[in-house]
Design a protein that fits this description.
about 120 residues, alpha+beta, 2,3-Dihydroxybiphenyl 1,2-Dioxygenase, domain 1, globular, Glyas_Fos-R_dOase_dom, VOC_core, Lactoylglutathione lyase, lyase activity, lyase
Length: about 120
């Protein structure tokens, strides 16, 4: 299993203002579902930041996302390790397969793969 990118998530009700603020540093909007927006560097597209008001399909909002090349393998590894699965593995309508797991420090990690 390989990691493709790691994206921190900022919880905020000021999504538009955050887009404008981080745009001053060169980040551009690459995805916006209304409740989550992702910004990326045009010169280094894997350098990303998400701003989220809430997670509309999960019980909690994640602190970060880690995209992997095999989300099913990642899920199996986490379950076998005894890690707390916060949100079960599922396919989302916007084209990702994901689950949430809690890290040892209490942060919620959204582990995903694109279908």
């Amino acid at each position: 299993m390989a990691v493709r990118r790691v994206v921190p998530t900022i919880r905020s009700e000021a999504v538009r203002e955050s887009r404008d603020f981080y745009g001053l540093l060169g980040l551009e909007e690459v995805m916006n579902h209304g409740w989550i927006m992702t910004l990326a560097s045009p010169s280094s597209p894997a350098a990303q930041l998400s701003v989220m008001t809430e997670d509309r399909t999960a019980p909690v909002a994640p602190d970060m996302s880690i995209e992997v090349d095999d989300v099913d393998a990642a899920y199996a590894v986490m379950r076998e390790s005894g890690a707390e699965i916060v949100h079960p593995l599922r396919d989302e309508e916007w084209g990702v397969r994901r689950f949430f797991v809690r890290d040892p420090g209490g942060r919620v990690v959204n582990v995903l793969g694109h279908r």
